[in-house]
């Protein structure tokens, strides 16, 4: 099975390197910077075979042009009709691609942006800025309903499926999650572990779908108790799960 390695970029980005097990072939996900990718390839003696893009934001795409100066023939997979114009192989829902010997299905996950896609199979999910550990992306372009539906798609993956998002936001997300569910014992345990990881400068990722279903308030918006500690300023009636999600997202934005 292919190995996945984090390449640190900017202050808190991860560019994921998917390394083929029996060759030097390597794919990278959301390379917002070129220099860390080129350094990784050079130090590990790897050969770049392609790039995967989840959405158009600059911190996920700005490194691509410089990388392709050294690898002009590699494919750049990404969402069709994206504002980012460097995609050579556009993808839509229902498409599938083979990366490092494994097939990944494309699901459309609008919310953070309208063009956002995720690359998923039963073992791994590259979720960009849709699903974080303990959180989810801000709603820059899409609606709360769209984001809830996108997260619902991801929540249907197997509990053991590993979640590779693009930012080390876990501790900040867990601070909010503990405000939402202060009595969640799984969340408390995970917070201790994540704090220890970061104290040693280790990634908290990948997470798993099962873990996120236990601790992530945005995946738990369908829980009857999820709004028990909602601030009074947001305490208006809700009728649908997406409305509950919208309140959580607004609370997080103000947190």
Describe this entry's structure for a reader:
The protein has a single domain, classed as Ribonuclease Z/Hydroxyacylglutathione hydrolase-like (Metallo-beta-lactamase, Chain A). Helix content is 31%, strand content 24%. It has eight helices and 14 strands. The chain has helices at residues 35-44, 58-61, 64-70, 144-155, 170-180, 185-199, 209-215, 241-254, and strands at residues 3-9, 13-19, 25-29, 47-52, 76-79, 89-91, 96-99, 102-108, 117-120, 124-128, 131-132, 135-136, 162-165, 207-208. The strands form three sheets. It has a six-stranded mixed β-sheet, with helices on one face. A six-stranded mixed β-sheet has the order 7-8-9-10-13-14. It has a two-stranded antiparallel sheet with strand order 11-12. Helix 5 (170-180) packs antiparallel against helix 6 (185-199). The longest helix is centred in the last third of the chain and has 15 residues, at 185-199. The protein is globular. The mean pLDDT is 96.
Strand content: 15-25%
CATH class: Alpha Beta
Biggest sheet features: 6 strands, mixed
* Helical fraction: 25-40%
Mean pLDDT score, rounded? Answer: 96
Provide the CATH architecture: 4-Layer Sandwich
CATH-derived topology: Metallo-beta-lactamase, Chain A
Number of strands: 14
Number of helices: 8
pLDDT < 50 stretches = none
Order of helices and strands: EEEHEHHEEEEEEEEHEHHEHH
């Amino acid at each position: 099975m292919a190995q996945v390695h984090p390449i640190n970029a900017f202050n808190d980005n991860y560019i994921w390197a998917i390394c083929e097990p029996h060759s030097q072939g390597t794919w990278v996900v959301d390379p917002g910077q070129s220099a860390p990718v080129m350094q990784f390839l050079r130090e590990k003696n790897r050969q770049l075979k392609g790039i995967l893009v989840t959405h158009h934001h600059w911190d996920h795409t700005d490194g691509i042009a410089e990388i392709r100066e050294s690898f002009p023939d590699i494919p750049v997979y990404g969402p069709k009709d994206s504002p980012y114009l460097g995609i050579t192989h556009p993808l839509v829902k229902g498409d599938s691609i083979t990366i490092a010997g494994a097939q990944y299905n494309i699901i459309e996950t609008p919310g953070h942006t309208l063009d956002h896609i995720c690359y998923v199979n039963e073992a791994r999910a590259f979720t960009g800025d849709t699903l974080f550990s303990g959180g989810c992306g801000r709603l820059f372009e899409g609606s709360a309903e769209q984001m809830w539906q996108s997260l619902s798609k991801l929540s249907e993956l197997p509990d053991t499926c590993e979640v590779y998002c693009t930012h080390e936001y876990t501790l900040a997300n867990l601070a909010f999650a503990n405000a939402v569910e202060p009595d969640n014992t799984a969340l408390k345990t995970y917070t201790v572990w994540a704090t220890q990881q970061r104290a040693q400068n280790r990634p908290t990722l990948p997470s798993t779908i099962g873990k996120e279903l236990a601790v992530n308030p945005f995946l738990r918006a369908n829980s009857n108790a999820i709004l028990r500690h909602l601030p009074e300023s947001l305490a208006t009636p809700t009728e649908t799960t997406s409305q509950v999600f919208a309140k959580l997202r607004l609370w997080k934005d103000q947190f």
